[in-house]
């Protein structure tokens, strides 16, 4: 195996057996003239719609089956928290697998934001992806309400809310750490360095991403219901439109964006030695 870039020796970097893609342009107006760009935006819209439709239906179904006020109440009925976590993680695995070759399979504004900070996507693409994701989330939850309106209103529409007994700081911290785990996994699973060494990694990339979502949900459902995806939280809040859903809604935007930014910085500048590479390039041009 050829040598890799892990540091500089004598001011020069050794050869490496993989190629990093060039940084995306900050503003790339040419993207707006390509059908592939709009196809990617549409893919993000549909993927987020399907994600919210399946997952919110799962949440509402679980609450319905464990409702103590209903006849035939079964405390151990329904899919449980484990099933809800599987629904979120499984859908992300499916949808990333289906859309990765078209849009990159972001399905989450926090993921898009982290990849933008790492110069993987342009500002124009990032903004339109986030708009498409939010509109897709609203549409997906709207379908849930249209099909099960009585259950939807009764069980709070699957909206993310800070659980009783937890402070805003705890909720914010849970969202930051949870999103860091997810976005860090995205960077690691799609790293061209790993792709060069393990040919199976590109095929399996959706799997660790889905598992990251699954594991984070297990940990944080009791605290915030698990956001780690501003579009998911926004779509549910818009359709449910209850004061409680909006009270701490800022947590589900600020937390994920901070977590995504930390993950981008950690992966690009610590693990991938971005700071050392930039310093070496500066010295060679001096």
How would you summarize the topology of this molecule?
Blueprint: H1 35-65, H2 80-99, H3 109-117, H4 123-147, H5 149-154, H6 168-189, H7 192-197, H8 201-204, H9 206-224, H10 230-240, H11 243-247, H12 251-271, H13 274-285
Main sheet properties: none
Number of strands: 0
Determine the number of helices (DSSP H or I, runs of at least 4 residues): 13
Percent helix range: 55-70%
Element order, helices and strands?
HHHHHHHHHHHHH
Strand content: under 5%
Please, what is the average pLDDT?
85
GO molecular function, one term: channel activity
Subcellular location: Membrane
Organism: Trema orientale
Membrane topology: Multi-pass membrane protein
What would the keywords be for this entry?
286 residues, mainly alpha, Glycerol uptake facilitator protein, globular, disordered N terminus, Aquaporin_transptr, membrane, transport, Major intrinsic protein, channel activity
Could you explain the architecture of this structure?
This protein is mainly α and 286 residues long. It has a single domain (31-67, 78-270), classed as Glycerol uptake facilitator protein (Up-down Bundle). The chain is 67% helix and 0% strand. It contains 13 helices and no strands. The protein is globular and about 60 Å long. The two termini are 32 Å apart. Mean pLDDT is 85; it is low at 1-13.
């Amino acid at each position: 195996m050829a040598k890799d870039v892990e540091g500089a020796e004598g001011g020069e970097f050794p050869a490496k057996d993989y190629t990093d893609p060039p940084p995306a342009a900050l503003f790339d107006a040419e993207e707006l003239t390509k059908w592939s760009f709009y196809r990617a935006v549409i893919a993000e819209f549909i993927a987020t719609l399907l994600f919210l439709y399946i997952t919110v239906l799962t949440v509402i179904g679980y609450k319905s089956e464990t409702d103590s006020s209903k006849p035939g109440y079964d405390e151990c009925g329904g899919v449980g928290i484990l099933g809800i976590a599987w629904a979120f993680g499984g859908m992300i695995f499916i949808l990333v697998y289906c859309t990765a070759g078209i849009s990159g399979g972001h399905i989450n504004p926090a993921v898009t934001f982290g990849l933008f900070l790492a110069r993987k996507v342009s500002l124009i693409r990032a903004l339109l992806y986030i708009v498409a994701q939010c509109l897709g989330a609203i549409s997906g939850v709207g379908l849930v309400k249209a099909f099960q309106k009585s259950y939807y209103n009764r069980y709070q529409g699957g909206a993310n809310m800070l659980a009783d007994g937890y402070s805003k700081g705890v909720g914010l911290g849970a969202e930051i750490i949870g999103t860091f785990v997810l976005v860090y996994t995205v960077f690691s699973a799609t790293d061209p360095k790993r792709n060069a060494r393990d040919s199976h990694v590109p095929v399996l990339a959706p799997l660790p991403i889905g598992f990251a979502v699954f594991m984070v949900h297990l940990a944080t459902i009791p605290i915030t219901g698990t956001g780690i995806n501003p579009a998911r939280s926004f779509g549910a809040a818009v359709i449910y439109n209850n004061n409680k859903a909006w009270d701490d809604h800022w947590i589900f935007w600020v937390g994920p964006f901070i977590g995504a930014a930390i993950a981008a910085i950690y992966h690009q500048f610590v693990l991938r030695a971005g700071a050392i590479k930039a310093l070496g390039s500066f010295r060679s041009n001096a």
